[in-house]
Automatic annotation (TrEMBL):
<dbReference type="InterPro" id="IPR004090">
    <property type="entry name" value="Chemotax_Me-accpt_rcpt"/>
</dbReference>
<dbReference type="GO" id="GO:0006935">
    <property type="term" value="P:chemotaxis"/>
</dbReference>
<dbReference type="Pfam" id="PF00015">
    <property type="entry name" value="MCPsignal"/>
</dbReference>
<keyword id="KW-1133">Transmembrane helix</keyword>
<dbReference type="GO" id="GO:0007165">
    <property type="term" value="P:signal transduction"/>
</dbReference>
<keyword id="KW-0807">Transducer</keyword>
<dbReference type="InterPro" id="IPR004089">
    <property type="entry name" value="MCPsignal_dom"/>
</dbReference>
<dbReference type="GO" id="GO:0004888">
    <property type="term" value="F:transmembrane signaling receptor activity"/>
</dbReference>
<comment type="similarity">
    <text>Belongs to the methyl-accepting chemotaxis (MCP) protein family.</text>
</comment>
<keyword id="KW-0145">Chemotaxis</keyword>
<keyword id="KW-0488">Methylation</keyword>
<protein>
    <submittedName>
        <fullName>Methyl-accepting chemotaxis protein</fullName>
    </submittedName>
</protein>
<keyword id="KW-0472">Membrane</keyword>
<dbReference type="GO" id="GO:0005886">
    <property type="term" value="C:plasma membrane"/>
</dbReference>
<feature type="domain" description="Methyl-accepting transducer">
    <location>
        <begin position="1"/>
        <end position="235"/>
    </location>
</feature>
<keyword id="KW-1003">Cell membrane</keyword>
<keyword id="KW-0812">Transmembrane</keyword>
C-alpha cells in the first residue's frame, strides 16, 4: 500500500512536471518568435540607416559640388567687377583728358580770334597804303582765312569732345550700375555659398549619426541573433526534458499499476 501511494505520488509529481515543461516550452517558443521578429526589425533599421547614410553622403557630395560652383561664380563675378571698375576708371580718365583738350581748344580759339583781329587791322592798314600795301593785304586775307578755318576746326573738335564727354558719362553711369548689380549678385552668391556650406556641414553630421545608428543597430541585431540561437537551444533542451518527463510519467503510471497489482496479490496471500 505504501508502495502504491508512493507510486501514485510520483506519478502526480511527474505529470505536474510534464505540464510545467509543456508550458515552459510554449513560453520559450513565443519568446523565440518575438526575438526573431525583433531581429528582423533591427536588421531593417540597420539597412535603412545604411541607406539613409548613403543618401546623406550623396547629398553632401551634391552640396559640396554646389558650394564649389558658387565659389567659382563668386570668383568670376569678383573678376568681372574688378574689370568693370578698371574700365570705368579709364573712361573717367578719358573724360578728364577730353576736358583738358577743351581747355587747349579755348586757348587756340582765343589765339585765332586775336589773329583774325590782327589780320583785319592789317588789311585795313594795307588798304590805306594803297598800291604799296596790296601784297600785304593778300597775306592778311590769307591769315584771316586761316584763322577762320582754325575757328571752324576748333568748333568741330569741341563738338566731338562734347559727344565724347556725353558718351563717357553715359558709359561711366552704366558701368556704375553694372558694378552695383555685380556687387549685389556677388553678395547673393556669397550668401548661397554660405548656405550650401552650412547644409554640407549639417548633412555630414547627419551622415555621421546615421553611421552610428547603423553600427549600433547591427550590434543589436547580432545580440538579438545570439539570443535567438540561445532560445532555440533552450527550446530544444526543454523539448527533450518534456519528452523525458512524458517517459517518466508513463513509467510512473506503469509503476503505480504494478504496485496496485502487487498489493492485490499480497492481500490474497494474507487471507
Amino acid at each position: 500500500t505504501q508502495l502504491a501511494s508512493a507510486a501514485e505520488e510520483l506519478n502526480a509529481v511527474t505529470d505536474e512536471s510534464a505540464r510545467g515543461l509543456v508550458q515552459q516550452n510554449n513560453e520559450i517558443e513565443q519568446a523565440a518568435t518575438a526575438v526573431n521578429e525583433m531581429t528582423s526589425a533591427v536588421e531593417e533599421v540597420a539597412r535603412n540607416a545604411v541607406s539613409t547614410s548613403q543618401a546623406s553622403r550623396n547629398a553632401a557630395t551634391s552640396a559640396g559640388d554646389g558650394r564649389d560652383l558658387v565659389q567659382e561664380t563668386v570668383s568670376a563675378i569678383e573678376r568681372m567687377s574688378g574689370d568693370v571698375k578698371g574700365t570705368a576708371e579709364l573712361i573717367i580718365n578719358l573724360a578728364t583728358e577730353s576736358r583738358d583738350i577743351g581747355k587747349v581748344l579755348d586757348v587756340i580759339r582765343g589765339l585765332a580770334d586775336q589773329t583774325n583781329l590782327l589780320a583785319l587791322n592789317a588789311a585795313i592798314e594795307a588798304a590805306r597804303a594803297g598800291e604799296a600795301g596790296r601784297g600785304f593785304a593778300v597775306v592778311a586775307d590769307e591769315v584771316r582765312a586761316l584763322a577762320h578755318r582754325t575757328q571752324q576746326s576748333t568748333s568741330e573738335i569741341e563738338r566731338m569732345i562734347g559727344s565724347i564727354q556725353s558718351g563717357t558719362e553715359q558709359a561711366v553711369s552704366s558701368m556704375r550700375n553694372s558694378t552695383e548689380r555685380a556687387e549685389s549678385t556677388l553678395n547673393i552668391a556669397k550668401g548661397a555659398g554660405m548656405a550650401l556650406n552650412t547644409i554640407n556641414v549639417a548633412v555630414e553630421e547627419i551622415n555621421e549619426r546615421n553611421m552610428v545608428i547603423a553600427s549600433a543597430a547591427e550590434e543589436q541585431a547580432q545580440v538579438a541573433r545570439e539570443v535567438d540561437r540561445n532560445l532555440v537551444n533552450i527550446r530544444d533542451l526543454s523539448a527533450q526534458s518534456t519528452t523525458g518527463a512524458n517517459q517518466t510519467s508513463a513509467a510512473s503510471t506503469e509503476l503505480s499499476r504494478l504496485a496496485v497489482d502487487l498489493s492485490s496479490m499480497v492481500s490474497r496471500f494474507a487471507l
